[in-house]
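Sample intake sheet
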Amino acid sequence: MAESAAEIIAREDGASIAYHRLEGQAPQVVFLTGFKSDMTGDKALSLEALCQERGQAFLRFDYFGHGESSGDFDDGTIGRWADDSVYAIDQLTEGPLILVGSSMGGWLMLLAALQRRDRIAGLVGIAAAPDFTEDLIEQELTPEQKTALERDGVVEIPNCYDPDSPYRISQKFIDDGRKHLLLRDTIPLDCPVRLIHGMQDEDVPFETSMRLAEKLQSANVEVTLVKNGNHRLSEPHDLQRLRHITENLLIEIER
């Protein structure tokens, strides 16, 4: 069956955020997508199906420059996308929330949770990638790429998922990411957190989730390592694991 058209909400600056929302019981589950991904991915749809089965409220949306939302991807930054996330939460959700963030969405999930701590009942990170602009992208640039970035303000790096569409990384993107680093200090969040990471992840090393677990103030943090798992964790058994972990967290919170 064809998916219904996305709904649209406008931000104060005229940009639009596309979203799909399910009405239901609390806590509401909110899915935050990864870098250059969108809300139609397997993980988002699998969690939406879980919430529909449970009668749980659910929200998925596209950041600025992603999917069906307005804007040019190259103009986006971590700060802009975190603001989009908080705006979507404020305008489109009610009551307690479980934020589920995939890859970059795991960073945005944390930034949003820090701004709306009183509403966060739990967090689920899938190959969460806080600080990736600093710890991964900038560290892995070759001398030639660093020269190009300094000279042109932008550099292209290979996209293993789509060789014909390399990632364009701007100096503005790197500089903005530096303003939002989280792993350098304790992260003052006390809610239950569940982290899932593939040990064969070639984009975000699984040690990132271990480091995140250490930095989170919460004592209720569990890390699931998937020995043969890659970065996407989108195979049927991966999606079933995600559903299981998210549902168990819902059950724990609802007690």
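Comment: The first helix runs from residue 42 to 54. The beta strands are 7-10, 16-22, 25-32, 56-61, 97-102, 120-126, 154-157, 167-170, 193-198, 221-226.
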